[in-house]
Fold these 2 entries.
Entry 1:
Amino acid sequence: MNQISAITPDRHAAGLRVAARLKDIVAANKLMTDPLMTYAWSGDASSYRLIPAVVAIIDTEDQVRAVMQAARAEGLPLTFRAAGTSLSGQAVTDGVLAVLGDGWRKMKILDGGEQIVLGPAIIVANANAALKPFNRKIGPDPASQATCKIGGVVNNNSSGMCCGVAQNTYHTMARLRIILTDGTLLDSGDNDSREAFRAKRTDLLDQLHALHHQVMNDAELVALIQKKYSIKNTVGYSLNALIDFHDPLDILIHLIVGSEGTLGFVSEVTYNTVPEHPFKSTALVPFPDPHSCARAISTLANGGVHVTTGVTAAEYIERRALETVIHLPAMQPLVPFLDENSPAVLIDVTAPDAETLALEVAKAETILAGEGATTIDFSTDEARSHALWDIRKGFFASAGAARPKGTSMLTEDVAAPIDRLADFVIDLRQLLDEHDYEDAVIFGHALAGNLHFQMGDNFSLPGSAAKFDRFSKALSDLVSIQYGGSLKAEHGTGRAIAPFVEAEWGPTAYALMHQIKSLFDPEGLLNPGVLLNHDPDIHIKNLKLMPLADPLVDLCIECGFCEPACPSHQMTLSPRQRIAVTRERARLRDSGEDPELLARLDEDFQYPGLDTCAACNLCSLRCPVGIETGTMIMGQRAERRGGLAKSVAHFAAGHTGMIETAMRGGVALADLGQSILGTAAMETVTDATRKATGRRLPRISPQLDAGPGAPKAPTQISREDPRATGFPVPIARQDRKKIVYFPACPTRMFGAAKTDLDLLAAPQAMLALLDRAWI
Amino acid sequence: MPDHLNGRCCGQPFVSKGFPQEGERVGNQLVKALSNLSGEDALPVLTDASTCAKHLADLPGTATIVDSAQFLADTLLPRLTITNPLPALAVHHNCSAQRLKEQPATEAVARACATAIAVLSSVTCCGYAGDKGLFTPELNKHATRFAKNDIPPDCRIGISTVSTCASGLSEHAGIPFVALASILEYVSRP
């Protein structure tokens, strides 16, 4: 049975010493070594879990250098982490985990949107929202773009549906700012920085230059590298840097792209943005068989030349995937055209104006019809386009929701030369079926030869890791060797396929990658074991267990999509972390293996887990399977309520009127206090009182005024100005529509903030409006 | 309006704090009272906090619950004349408003009330969470730490469809947040 190894006493002690070394440069609440918080930060979106010895939330370049020094001094490895949405296990460590905090949110648009400067903690979708008014976006478009951050995008050379092989970070980066393990800074767009770096790190640049010549003198290797990057590829280091550039500085910054945090720290990037054309037409086109569909895609792919006008996305969807969504309304027009073999392709055509769009759609229609498409239905209707794309995006969620509870979700991400797409899909299908993964469905960014599929597996069962191992080896053989493809097209090497890098690249290129690692990081400080790993079984070690904990959350795959929506993320815990810790507590409770640790986790969960969850459930809106972590937390609160609390609540529930009056009274008293003492003094007094009462006394915010209370039910009809009487006029007249108005308790209890305007409180304003609109 | 409003509550605060039975009891009393008022005519029930609207709508009951944003946008706005629009208005969609998908309604009213609106994009849930702003104010402070970046210089006031969220935002966003109805009433005064 697979087991997550607990932190050894030695590691824990080293973690404590790292924290001690950092205590003057990182705030105490941003340094974590306790069992709860280290467990909370133990997973990314992959199937792997490693518990860090220490977690540090860092905000500055000085802190980056300090964390490097502290980790080195205590002999612990160091992993930097942005959003933690990695799918191959590259953002987890059993050493020092340095998480990007608020200090990395720089965003600056240059030249009317032609370029954008971004800090590594900016979420991709936020950068694109800022660029939208300019009809631009950044090139990399990972499916996790509402969550994932720039630091991860650079370090994984991430990409998605429209990005192709031409618009990733490697090709659209204009400037990079990095810190190497010796603390040296390089800002590639700043002349002084370049010259200073050249002077200080001549050794490194000379050796990179030598590597460049070594590769250029090996025609076979050059050809291999060119072929590997003609399709999407995130296996190993970006060796194309060694053939695309001559200046070792350029080679260096391009090697950093896709290096998965193993070569240096990325502190800022400037992108050349790409057009985001406002005119778009979408169609979901069925074909009679995989071969005709693949031929059409191959022609649409324009010989691999990336376009920004014309067909910008073509998603292949195999028949078995279509079957899982066949009930959806948007699918209905297609159903008559599907037979048992029919795949479909989802196509976006985009253009800067309506005329060009019509031309491009006509071109695409000709190609599709020529290859035997059974029906073609392009439309510029935005709602329909969203519905069609929701079908495609829904495969991730439906695979997640359909899998048995307690299983991990494995996400595969392979690519092959596009001229062999149809055979590739058919062979993949056969491989999945042979290995007992019949439920997996295949879909993907076919223009770039990229296919995805997901499987569920329960790694707590005996034999499951061995089964996954057999499948992984067979997949490596099929993709890397038979098809000359990429075992990871977009998701990065991580721990998941580190044992298969050599099989894909061959011994010469693989040795080159080890040389690169030892040039940048000879001591193996940065994210060791990720991307390159000597352990042939690392892909089946440290696999996440998904113990059943609460039916509300059992389907969670810990992807982290919830985190940007959570008000307590990076203050205490995020929804993903609340679930991870809840699962671990459930596992410890069921196994009985460490009652002391269980008691500690249960106790420590109170404040970060329960008290600081706003129960807003916004996590559920981001979750691919709609999990309401807030509801889980409310349930845990209920479980913890003792007899006394319950009887108090019982009393309160029977006396809500008294509470309301008292609350309004309390707020009103505070209001009076503010007038007498002044806001600052009042805050000090209330904060001190709160502390004295163990946070049981509510703190009165300086913005909080006494509520208006319930408007008195009007007794006589009057058209007086409500502002004069304080309470408004009745509206229930015989000739008017009737409506029941229930001013909610917070509206009644909490008054409005003080403003310069002569505003009415909410209930009074509502009644005045009803009257004015003569309802 | 229901008589004896004092003490009437949908029960959501009890559920949220881990007292589901008490929450149900209080909520059912209110639903009963509202259903009685709504009566045979099945009058719609208007309430003015998105959180309560969401919770009430989820409770079993006969009456149709309408939240104020939707009602202001659909029913009142077309019958009002905006006489005194504001130059700019900040808008926060609280958690229940997002879950009720009432952002378009709120923004439609806000756009009618002001020349320009600025939707807070860095604040998801303000962390005030009914009364957490009173008991764990650090959560509210953390959740709203970037709010000031979302507010343009000429924007002096903002709206939220829940009064507790308005309190939480007012303290950290640098401008006061008030009810949407209060602003609509102000800008449509004859």
Note: Chain B touches chain A through 95 residues (CB under 8 Å).
Entry 2:
Amino acid sequence: MRKALAFFVVAAALCLSALAETPAPEKATIEFDDRAVVVSADRALLEKISRWAAELEPDAARGRVEDLIRAEFGDGVDVEVFETGRAADAVGVKTIRTTLRAGAMDGLIPPLEGLSAERAKSVLGMFGFTSVTVEEFESLTEQGRIRLLAGARSGRVAVIHGADAFDAVVIHLMREADGEKAGKVVE
Amino acid sequence: MILKAAKALTVAVLAAAVLAASAPSASATARNMTESNKMALARRTREVQRAELFRVSRGRMRPNPVVFSRHGIYQHVLQNHDLIIREHTDYFGNAMARMGKFYAERGPEARRAGGSASMESRMKELLRIYDLEPALEKCETLYEIWQAVEESRGAMEALPARAAMAANAAIWASEAFGGDPPESVSAKLEELAGRWPPARDVFEIEKNLKELAEAYAELFAGIAAERGEGGR
């Protein structure tokens, strides 16, 4: 009995020491202009990643940071990407709530009255809008919505509520100060 | 505020606009269209009332038993010329103010729209609609006179919306074709810009506007389908 207890104590001590020697992965957050990336790796690798990230071109990294990190440092790096609220802020600075007809009268959207969602999408597509139905929009997670709005930075996104003249349309006007084309997000 | 401005504009612009619209030669004189509308209404009402109340039978004038199914309208048309003309002129002023606002706010883009979508063309159309005389000449009954006035009001009420639709459609078509829409598209836009079946009340106005808006949407859906933008 005593021998067994002694063996157990020795085994436990050995295991603990072995665990203590394994370097625990550390986490670091790298912030880009439109998202935050949380990377888990050992300290040495983290330092390499942070030096690499500092030299990264923001435009080159936009939307593909995760892939770039994996390509550069291998699949062993644990990467979690968060599109931050700043992405949404960067996209929509002004929101106008209107209707299909009023929006068309004001020249904000092309005439869509009476068109099915698919045909309305094709018309919007012709004018550079990316469009989804309100059902598709609502089925998106918060992250998905932010991603949709972030996508509108280089164009326009329309979320179609219906085909009636008085169906609501929400328009997010893009920020022109960023030097980007003043796109519109329509909900 | 807008209505006040519209009324002021009405007085100021009427004479000049009428002169421009009805002056093929420099010697033409200005016509006060409000006054001529008023006189035409009074004259035609008098003539029609006589025809409605009497019929010729065997060479003798006899009372014609007119059934006043729309008694209120008959009384109104017979008695309230000043009120009818004043309201009619208010519609004119309101339409002119709304169109002026639209073209001012949409700026050069809207003003570049040609043909029937142009501001000049729309203002001329407004004057043509405002002129009651030709329509009243065709009226044979008091009810038809009332309908003619209502159709004119309805057309004036809808004209700013039609102008906005036409100008915006022209702008979108221009964008879709890089500034040079094909003849078929231009012809269709021209046809839609001039399309307006008579409407005598707000329900008919809304029905017409809905059909017009859907026709514009169909036009663009057709263009998108031709280009293979997808959607059915």
Note: The first strand of chain A starts at residue 26 and ends at 31.
